[in-house]
Specification:
Blueprint (H helix, E strand, L loop, with lengths): L11 H8 L3 H26 L7 H4 E4 L4 H6 L12 E4 L3 H7 L10 H36 L2
Antiparallel strand pairs: 1-2
Helix pairs in contact: 2-6
């Protein structure tokens, strides 16, 4: 099954506002927002993951990090202000649980979590970015003014 990219359109103003912040500040703002927005998906996946299968429930997290195998499979984006956050398990058994294999039927927990939370997650990202960008701009302004 091919991955379908998720695109949010109509957020040019947010992109411009982020572009006005120093790069490190913009990346920090994005990281915070994405981590907060990913948590409902993680909670839903934890709720749906089997409790007795390979500690999957405990291994579901929101993070900027991937395990070694995931890193080799992941294609890096090259946009300079781009920030990524991953929601899922670092447990290799999670793939077998999600998609199944010749001995085990699929018992998905990540896809249903995404399907249930995607609209809320995308709204959370769009709405909380404005507040975080404004707060970061105010902090930078106070620092620059010496107040």
């Amino acid at each position: 099954m091919a991955k379908k990219p998720v695109r949010i359109e109509g957020l040019r103003e947010l992109d411009r506002a982020l572009g006005e912040l120093p790069k490190a500040t913009a990346q920090g703002v994005l990281r915070e927002v994405l981590k907060d927005a990913g948590e409902p998906i993680a909670r839903s996946a934890r709720r749906l993951a089997p409790r007795d299968e390979y500690h999957l429930h405990d291994s579901i997290d929101v993070s900027t990090r991937l395990n070694k195998r995931q890193r080799t499979l992941h294609r890096k984006e090259t946009s300079p202000a781009f920030q990524e956050m991953f929601v899922g398990t670092n447990n290799p058994a999670g793939v077998q649980q999600e998609f199944g294999n010749s001995r085990h039927l699929a018992q998905p927990f990540m896809r249903p979590a995404w399907d249930a939370e995607k609209a809320n997650t995308l709204d959370l990202i769009a709405n909380s970015l404005w507040g975080r960008i404004s707060a970061a701009a105010r902090r930078l302004s106070r620092k620059a003014g010496g107040v």
